[in-house]
């Protein structure tokens, strides 16, 4: 059986595409952006945990000032089941932020440490606006750290009803372990 010229071209193009895809996958697995950074630049990286519907869940390192979407990208991007409509992706992340990318139909998002979060991070919690964020910070400044997430009900404007709505989004050092 004689292979036509067009058939040869199609086979060659197919093989090139195949090797390009496989090579890109191998290169991505072995790529470590930190190897290309100087020691000074590595000191500007922070640790963020990204879990849920991402391709490579776990701890990632991103530059200070990075946004939630940068951390998700560093964790390999979202899966086909991710519901990014439940995440505020343009919020800046801080050291040891934990981001939960929810599954479609799920109800997660970002988890915020209420003992270390600034107003911007607190506002990222569904149901917490600027006033409540400032009340949380004021309470924390006057009374010290929250021992448990439940202690947030001691903040002016946050009762049991609000706590029930936000409890899945908040953590303290004790609940991180």
Task: Explain how this protein is built.
This protein has seven helices and five strands, in the order ααββαββαααβα. The chain has helices spanning 5-30, 39-42, 68-74, 119-123, 130-143, 160-166, 173-176, and strands spanning 45-52, 58-63, 97-101, 110-113, 170-171. A five-stranded mixed sheet has the order 2-1-3-4-5. The chain has two domains: 5-31; 39-176, Photosystem II 12 kDa extrinsic protein (DNA polymerase, domain 1, Orthogonal Bundle). Strand 3 and strand 4 (110-113) form a beta hairpin. The chain has 177 residues and is an alpha/beta fold.
The tally of domains stands at: 2
CATH superfamily of the largest domain: Photosystem II 12 kDa extrinsic protein
Biggest β-sheet, characterized? 5 strands, mixed
Radius of gyration equals: 22 Å
CATH class membership of the largest domain = Mainly Alpha
Cα separation of the termini: 67 Å
Share of β-strand residues? 5-15%
Shape: elongated
Return the string of H and E elements: HHEEHEEHHHEH
* CATH-defined architecture of the largest domain: Orthogonal Bundle
Walk across the major sheet and give the strand order: 2-1-3-4-5
- Quickly count the helices: 7
């Amino acid at each position: 059986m004689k292979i036509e010229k067009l058939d040869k071209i199609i086979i060659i193009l197919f093989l090139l595409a195949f090797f390009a895809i496989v090579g890109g996958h191998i290169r991505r697995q072995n790529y470590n952006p930190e190897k290309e950074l100087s020691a000074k630049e590595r000191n500007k990286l922070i640790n963020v945990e990204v879990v849920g519907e991402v391709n490579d869940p776990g701890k990632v390192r991103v530059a200070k000032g990075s946004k939630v979407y940068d951390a998700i990208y560093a964790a390999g991007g979202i899966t086909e089941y991710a519901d990014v409509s439940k995440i505020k992706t343009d919020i800046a992340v801080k050291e040891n932020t934990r981001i939960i990318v929810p599954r479609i139909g799920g109800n997660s998002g970002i988890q915020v440490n209420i003992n270390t979060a600034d107003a911007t991070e607190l506002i990222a919690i569904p149901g917490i606006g600027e006033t409540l964020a400032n009340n949380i910070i004021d309470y924390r400044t006057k009374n010290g750290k929250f021992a448990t997430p439940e202690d947030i009900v001691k903040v002016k404007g946050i009762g049991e009803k609000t706590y029930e709505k936000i409890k899945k989004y908040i953590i303290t050092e004790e609940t991180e372990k």
